[in-house]
Amino acid sequence: MALRLENSDGCSGRLKVFYNGTWGSVGSNSMTPHTAKLVCKELGCGDGGTREISIFYGRVNGTAWLDHVQCGESNSSFWQCPSDPWELQSYDDVRDETNITCNGRKPERTPVAACPNSTSCTDREKIRAVGGKDGCSGRVEVWHRGSWGTVCDDSWDMQDAEVACRQLGCGPAVSALAEAAFGEGTGPIWLEQVECRGTEPSLQACWARTGDGSACRHKEDAAVNCLGEWLGLLRLYSRSRALAELWAAFQP
Asked: What is the dihedral of CA 16, 17, 22, 25, to 10 degrees?
């Protein structure tokens, strides 16, 4: 799931949520004032905001996912707030949609290195496996915003591991590991709730929530075992066995 305000500045406009593969609007019925504040904080648009009321009638264009959102002081994130069930909503008047104006603006971003070692790179260079023996097993780390960061194990499964192993150039996945199986990483956690179909060319092409928002800790770092490492061990075992048989053949 993800969140956005639709104007070009990203800090005002119609509130949209990404759910079930589709962006949809949020109803304003019974919405509490604290909801706008949480949305703005979550988007990095200041520490407060107000809900704007539209006076023009029109039909809702697209999907409407959510209504009756009632965030309170005890909620630290929009996603924790009570609401109606996540499903297609029945309202169709744009005056019922939520529009928010935040009291801040997103800071200007300093240009960051697009790649670890150069200005252009392949998907392969934007992922690494740390802590394993040959780069085909270990803690999954991705390059984003000029630094390496880990992936949260929330919803991490074999489909996600398949994509990671393919991106690593290590063949099919053997296992998808959780709970910092290869040790805890440091720095940012760049991806949370990764939802790959298994056919994507990279983890960056999968749907995921942007991490580094305190919802995940490094004790939840995701990891993989890919077939590439197992093939290497199998070759080493086969070579050792062949040498042993050859040596035995020449013994008196």
From this structure: -40
